[in-house]
Specification:
Number of domains: 2
CATH class of the largest domain: Alpha Beta
Bound molecules: ligand LLP
Structural class: alpha/beta
Strand content: 25-35%
Shape: globular
Largest sheet: 9 strands, mixed
Number of strands: 21
CATH architecture of the largest domain: Alpha-Beta Barrel
Helix content: 25-40%
Distance between the termini: 59 Å
CATH superfamily of the largest domain: Alanine racemase
């Protein structure tokens, strides 16, 4: 469910015509719907009310300050993976007691920064990281709360680049290695073992992998408790998929109910790290057709954005719906929607059936709220697009379009360059 609909033939975000945003803010531009964000958060949270839980929105999906603030206002915590994300989180007033820190590569300064902030928990991904957190905490005579991220070896049946819970992946600690690590964490002088964590992948469109992972994690929790080790938090990560095309992922309500039903007796706080399911369908990328071009038998619509601003089609062969913002009549044509970047992999859609397009037409790339702007680059020296948040009949520019000066910020010429 989202709030991008046609009114009298023109695509709107809530009550604002996208053509108005394009005219006033320019193209390309990311547009997000506040009502959709609020709705997605509520739909995810409501069925969890029956159990002790925390929702820690995974901010890598979209880390714009206004989006974070909106979700924080609804009670969300945050899942972070870097010092930069922690910086963004604290800047918008996130409560450190609701921040979990995931990721395989935490550096010493990042660990210090998180200890300074007194975040809730480090999700530890290796023995070496556990040792490092213990050493950093000991040097400051502080206690770091830790969970161990276990890798349950479950196939989430998603794109290989976003599957994380298989034994060959770099993420988490395999079950055999994890068992002694829990004991080590519990015994360490400056660590407090508080839980178990897992995250098996992203854009998962079936319930079974989640429930299989839950079953394995619950076994671990039981074993730990039998040994007298504490487990206060059970973090199930994120990963719930969304419909981009004809996928039929479980509804968040069904996902939450099934997990709650199986975890009621666990006596711990359930932690969730949803990203895509909250922001994915709450955003679009607005773009304008620059040229229509035919090469041999192929037809291209060349637009003013591409893999530099939305890399998902190029990187994961992701299918994202594209629709004209204003009515276009005529017999559908098959086109590749491509960007200006000097790479053959620069496409937003291949062999897509669309109404006949002309230069100047506005298009909306749907489902671009998650891993859109947050993965955007300045490749080929294109400034990154503006971001706009629509709320009812009003809109706000929540990130200005970058200027050319932003492309070279920080670059310096050596004085003695020959
Ligand atoms: N927790 C952890 C530890 C994660 O690594 C991720 C995502 C999440 C939570 C949130 O997952 P979500 O609910 O959004 O599926 N760039 C890719 C997706 C990469 C996901 C990385 N980890 C894409 O555009 O499909």
């Amino acid at each position: 469910m989202h709030h991008f609909d046609f009114h009298e033939g023109s695509l709107h975000c809530e009550q604002v015509p996208l053509s108005q945003i394009a005219a006033e803010v320019g193209s390309p531009c990311y547009v997000y719907s506040a009502a959709t964000l609020r709705r997605h958060y509520r739909v995810f949270a409501e069925p969890l009310a029956a159990v002790s839980h925390m929702i820690c929105y995974s901010m890598k999906a979209n880390s714009n300050a206004a989006i974070l603030k909106l979700l924080l206002n609804m009670g969300s915590g945050l899942d972070i993976v870097s010092g930069g994300e922690l910086y963004r989180a604290l800047r918008v007033g996130a409560d450190p007691a609701k921040i979990v820190f995931s990721g395989v590569g935490k550096t010493v300064p990042e660990i210090e920064q998180a200890l300074d902030a007194n975040i809730l928990v480090f999700n530890v991904e290796s023995e070496a990281e556990l040792d490092r957190i213990q050493a950093v905490a000991a040097a400051r005579d502080q206690v770091a709360r830790v969970s161990i991220r276990v890798n349950p070896d479950i196939d989430p049946r998603t794109h290989p680049y976003i599957a994380t819970g298989l034994y060959e992946s770099k993420f988490g600690v395999d079950l055999d290695t994890a068992r002694p690590l829990f004991g080590k964490a519990h015994a360490a002088s400056h660590l407090e073992l508080v839980g178990v964590d897992c995250h098996i992948g992203s854009q998962i469109t079936e319930l079974a992998p989640f429930l299989d992972a839950l079953e394995r994690i619950q076994q671990v929790v039981q074993e730990l408790r039998a040994q007298g080790l504490p487990v206060r938090y059970l973090d199930l990560g994120g990963g719930l998929g969304i419909p981009y095309n004809n996928e039929t992922p479980p509804h968040p309500d069904e996902y939450a109910r099934e997990i709650v039903a199986r975890s009621r007796a666990m006596d711990c706080t359930l932690v969730f790290e949803p990203g895509r399911v909250i922001v994915g369908n709450a955003g679009i990328l607005l773009t304008q057709v620059q040229y229509i071009k035919s090469n041999y038998k192929k037809r291209f619509a060349i637009v003013d954005t591409g893999m530099h601003h939305l890399i998902r089609p190029a990187l994961y062969q992701a299918w994202q719906q594209i629709q004209p913002v204003l009515p276009r009549t005529g017999e559908a044509e098959v086109v590749d929607v491509v960007g200006p970047i000097c790479e053959s992999g620069d496409f937003l859609a291949l062999a897509r059936e669309l109404p006949p397009l002309q230069a100047g037409d506005l298009l909306a790339v749907m489902g671009a709220g998650a891993y859109g702007f947050s993965m955007a680059s300045q490749y080929n020296s294109y400034p990154r697009p503006a971001e706009v948040l629509v709320d009812g009949d009003r809109y706000h520019v929540i990130r200005a379009r970058e200027a050319y000066a932003d492309l070279v910020r920080g670059e310096q010429l050596p004085d003695d360059l020959a």
